[in-house]
Write a structure and sequence with these properties.
By secondary structure, the protein is mainly alpha-helical. It is built from four helices and no strands.
């Protein structure tokens, strides 16, 4: 079932992408395309959540239990859960790349971000990405 928090997530990520699009040209001074990294990371989060919600809808499993149950009766559910778990290493690699790019940007061109608030949000988003990874590793440990 689609929950209000899913709608909030989609609207929030949509706003963040819109905000980046409005300031897109201002990121040209950055040594790495950190704005593109942000957009892809937002889309990855949305994609993983979408897969969890889809499994929940087609299998009548609560969204909180989707990733813990690796033996769904429905073959479509099993495939989607597998893709969701396969996305975790991709998100991990993308997060590490973003950390490297962020470090390079902060050390070589700290003024390339449109504002200090954008830089602060980048740091918060990085922390959230790592928290998401740790959470998924713990859930994965429980599921296996």
């Amino acid at each position: 079932m689609v929950q209000p928090k899913d709608i909030v997530l989609v609207v929030s990520l949509g706003f963040l992408i819109y905000d980046l699009a409005c300031d897109w040209a201002l990121y040209r001074l950055c040594p790495k395309p950190i704005h593109k990294w942000l957009v892809v990371s937002y889309l990855m989060v949305a994609g993983v959540r979408l897969m969890v919600v889809l499994v929940s809808l087609i299998s009548d499993t609560a969204t909180s239990d989707v990733l813990i149950n690796l033996r769904h009766e429905n073959s479509k559910s099993r495939v989607l859960v597998s893709f969701t778990w396969l996305a975790v290493p991709s998100v991990a690699a993308w997060t590490v790349l973003g950390s490297i790019w962020t470090w390079e940007m902060v050390t070589s061109a700290p003024d390339c971000m449109p504002s200090g608030m954008h830089l602060a949000f980048l740091a918060v988003w990085q922390a959230l990405c790592y928290a998401w990874l740790i959470t998924n590793l713990l859930v994965g440990k429980t599921a296996w």
